[in-house]
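Lab manual, section 2.4: Encoding a predicted structure.

Procedure: take the sequence of the chain (389 residues), apply the prediction step described in section 2.3, and record the output as structure tokens. A sample record is shown.
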Amino acid sequence: MTESDPPYLVTPQELVDSEAGDSLDAAIALLERWRLLLFVPLLAGCVALGVTYAIPSTFTAKTSFLPPQQQNSAASALASLSALANVASSAAGLRTPADQFVALMQSTTVQNRLIDRFDLMKVYDVDLRTDARRDLGESARVTLSKRDGLISVEVDDTSPQRAADIANAYVEELRRLTATLAITEAQQRRAFFERQLSQTRDRLSAAQQSLESSGFSAGALKSEPRAAAESYAKLRAEVTAAEVRLQGLRGSLVDSAPEIVQQIAILSALRGQLTRAEGATGGGSGADYISKFREYKYQETLFDLFSRQYELARVDEAREGSQFQVIDAAVAPERKSRPKRALIAVATTAVAGLILMAWLLARQSWRRLASSPQGAQRAQRLRAAFKLR
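Recorded output:
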């Protein structure tokens, strides 16, 4: 090397030759230990396979069902029942209930019923109900398929029959729970009109009692209030329906929306007609009787409208399928799902082989490092560093 040459300690060619030599030495070291690389991983795989036989077998049962589908055209089905047909679309604003069904099946209420039904605290060998719910949540998986809309329930258990029974019980408990809740659109409408019908029934009874206790005179008979009262009651019921419709629209739209402006105009016109109808009734001996008769007819008309809406909502609820349609009921599985003994044995063998190979290569590198004076000094420093730690 001349004075003008760059002061390389190792030339590129020497570096390439060194790397090739290192690779060749590593391959030779592995080939010299081929028996160790073959039999030690095989032994580890056999031990892992034997250990899996000490693990209790787990069986997985699965059931799938189709939840009730939401009606998207419920408002059009009510169009023949005057202005109250629009109340349903305001009262029922839920999206698809499938996600809610999944949440209900994972609720504490359903889990507690299953724990009591199958005595899972004893099965899981726990003393607290919270621990039993945790173990049940880990054993059961409730999933919703976005592609076909089916809800699947998979349950793991050491008993194949119990796994199937718990999976089927999830669907049964969901039926039981949803029977008392309003989830779908038809159920929402049915619950809404059921409340309105109950309130109107009470008001109708009060109006009837007030009418019966008012008495009437000859002047009240001459006024013949029936036709006017029926017209007034119908008009007042339409005003009530328009007010409910406007309230529902304001829950989802701004006041400047065309639908709200149109509904306000309709409500204003109906209120004007109602005011004129109320002013058309004069005083006299039968004024009190006429007023109470009009109130009675109003409540009677409103009760009739709510009754028809309630019955139609019940029909829609039955038509959309309150009973869940089970596609595949869970049966006792014939094969276990865990542990996967062959997979565990193969994986253990592969991992043991990789670890042993890495150890042999590390030992070869260490010996190669310690063979040179400079490498021996570095090795000594490395040992000292480990001792300090």
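Check your result against the sample. Residues 214-320 form one domain.
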